[in-house]
Amino acid sequence: MTLIKKHRKNLIKKFEFTYKKEVIYIKVKKNKLSKSYKLSLDKKDLNGLVSIPYYIKYEDGAKFARDNLEWISGEIEKLKPIIKINNGAKIRFFDDILKIKYITSSTNKIRLAHNVLEISSKKKHSDILLKWIKNEVRKSSSMAINEFSRKLNVKVSKIKISNSFSYWGSCNSKNEISINWRLIFCPQFVLNYIIAHELSHLIEFNHSKNFWNLVDKLITNRLDAQKWLKQNDNYMYRLRLD
C-alpha cells in the first residue's frame, strides 16, 4: 500500500495497490454523512472510491479497499477497453450509426450528411463535437419533456445537460431536470424512459407502485429500456472523446 497524495480541501487521500500485476488507485474520502464504509468505482478515472466517516482513519479505509481489490479490479475490467471517439470512428448517435470525420479548417462547423458527421475546426475537434452532442441531447430531451410534462401536468423550470459518471438523469425540488449527454449513445426510446422517470419523480418522490404507474402512462416499453441500460451502461461510459 502506497500513499500517493492528500487533497486537504476535499479530505481525500489517494493510495496505490498492485493486484494481479496491475496498478489500482484508490481514493479514500471522508464524508460527514457516512456512517460506515462505502465502496464504489470512480468510472471517470477508473479508481476505487471508499467513503468513510470522519472518525475513521484514511489508512483503515485503504485497508478496506485492499480487502476488496478483486471486486474493484472486476469493475474496472468492465470499463475496458476505453473507446476513443476520434477521426474515422463509427458510433451510435440515438437511432443512427454515424461515421466521424475530422476536417482541418479555419472555421468551426459541423455537417451531417449520408450518415457522416463532418467536424471542421482548426482547434480541438472533440470540443466542437461535444458541444454538438450536448445540443442534440438538449433538443431531443426538450421534445420529450414538453410532451410528457403536458400529460403529467407538471412544469419543468430548467433543463440541464450533465457530465455525470454516476447517474443518467436527476431532478430537484426546483423542477429542474438534468440529463446526461452520454445518453446520445443510446436509442431514443431509452432517453425517453430516463425523461419519463425523472418527470414522474416531480410527482412521486419514490419508487412506489404509483410512481411506476406514472412512468408507464408516458411510455410503453419501460422494461425494454431498463434492460437496454443494464446491458449497455458500461459501454456508454467506455466511450470517451479525445
Strand order of the largest sheet: 1-2-3-5-4
For the biggest sheet, the summary is: 5 strands, mixed
CATH fold-level assignment of the largest domain: Zincin-like
N- and C-termini, Cα separation: 32 Å
Per DSSP E runs of 2 or more residues, the count of β-strands stands at: 14
| Number of helical elements | 6
CATH superfamily of the largest domain: Metalloproteases ("zincins"), catalytic domain
- Give the C-alpha Rg: 21 Å
What number is the mean pLDDT? 94
Overall domain count: 2
**Low-pLDDT windows of residues:** none
How large a portion of the residues is in β-strands, by DSSP E? 25-35%
Q: In sequence order, what are the helices and strands, one letter per element?
A: EEEEEHHEEEEEHEEEHHHE
Q: What would CATH call the class of the largest domain?
A: Alpha Beta
**Backbone structural class:** alpha/beta
The helicity comes to 25-40%
Described by the principal axes of the CA atoms, the overall outline is globular
Which architecture of the largest domain per CATH? 2-Layer Sandwich
At a glance:
36% of the residues lie in helices and 32% in strands.
Description:
The protein has 242 residues and is of the alpha/beta class. The protein folds into two domains: 2-77, no CATH class; 84-241, Zincin-like (2-Layer Sandwich). Helices cover 36% and strands 32% of the residues. It contains six helices and 14 strands. The chain has helices at 58-66, 69-77, 125-152, 188-201, 209-218, 222-238; strands spanning 2-7, 12-19, 22-30, 38-42, 47-52, 83-85, 90-93, 96-104, 109-113, 116-121, 158-162, 169-171, 176-180, 239-241. The strands form four sheets. Strands 1-2-3-5-4 form a five-stranded mixed β-sheet, with helices on one face. A four-stranded mixed β-sheet has the order 7-8-10-9, with helices on one face. A hairpin with a 2-residue loop joins strand 7 (90-93) and strand 8. Helix 3 packs across helix 4, helix 4 (188-201) packs across helix 5 (209-218) and helix 4 packs across helix 6 (222-238). The longest helix has 28 residues, at 125-152. The radius of gyration is 21 Å and the shape is globular.
